[in-house]
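Before going further, learn to read the protein records used in this course. The integers have meaning only within a learned vocabulary of local backbone shapes. The record below shows the convention in full.
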Amino acid sequence: MPGQVRLTARGVGLGLTGIALATVGVGLGSADLTRLGLLGPLVVVAGTAWLVVVDPARGRHPLQVVRTIVPNPVAAGSPASVRVEIRAGSPGGRTRLAELHLGEQAATQVSGGLTLRARVVRAPGLIALTYPIQPTRRGRWPLGPLVVRRTDPFGVAQSRATLGEQAEVAVWPEVVELPLPRGALVGEPDRVALGARSPSTDDAALRDYREGDDLRRVHWASSARRGELLVRSDERAGLRPASVLLDLPADRAGIEWTVALGASMGLALLGAGHPVRLLGGRPGAGGAHIDPTLRLRHLRGGAAGTARVDLLDLTVDLEPATTELAVEEDLLAAAHELTAPGSGSALVFAVVGPLSAAARGSLARVGDFNDSLAVVRVPTSAGVPRREAEHTLAALRRAGWRACAATPGEDLADCWHRLLGTSR
């Protein structure tokens, strides 16, 4: 508050009638009629001034607003409950509270564009509003502030203003549970399943040689290629770290599908015991809420640990870069990270779209250092993007990636099973 003040029908009628009476009184030379006529406009002015001066959010008897969202964050497509309490701590505040007509505001992505229907409970010094929400899209969306309608004691004016602060609900992507059958991924002690370029389980992750390392752990082929000593890490085969790389498209539907698939992949890997990190995309304006170090390290923990929450939190604000050049730079940087000695990733899952020749080449080389799987978004319509997507798919397969084509909007579980070569 403050807000907009307008006259009611009573106020308009009283003001016009008063002006007319005062005009007639002046014309007839009647002081009494003139004073009576002026009384109407004075009442209108007094009522309007009362609404402007008396603010429920300030003064000696301010009202307190507390908004609680459970759960928060919430997954897209899942229900949550919002409770808004307006409290008055004094008799004067309780009087103000009784005069209010309240309404709630919410972003369209939270309300679905429908009017929020709240259950209202009134008690001495308290009004509580409870209503359900079911967010439709990933992101951070505003709730509130309350919309307050008040009428002055004379009923001649009405105000519409806001009360309390705006709250925010964080919405995770709508993920699905993806099974991870035993043996479907490289990393089991005696099985390799990804194709010609898949290293043995001992060669799964490489790092720089450090003084004191056992020379029997040196990976001579990679060392010769790099020109510096590289040793096999001591990660247990079944718990090798994984990276999920997202190449976000420009269209909104494609972004949400890509993020949902990548997040679902990450959760499946975490549930199987793999440390996981998320690469690609850029945090949007809401990314300041997130610990920046989460994007720099692998998250560790089973499905019941905090790693699951941390991974989903990282996806809330993901957006593509603003230009095609910046998008490609992000992808090249991620590919460089995945091929750098000591990067710590033995498994790579990528969800990418049509790539340029340079980006295809950089991403293909990731298969030399990691066991790599990719879902390539292929447009349904013919044209240059579709041809580029087909070239991307072929290049990755030639480089030893296990790769499959998918159309944005496709069922995530079907896509996952096709990638792994398993059945539902």
Summary: The chain has a mean pLDDT of 83. The longest strand covers residues 80-88. The chain is about 35% helix and 25% strand. The CA atoms of residues 22 and 34 lie 4 Å apart.
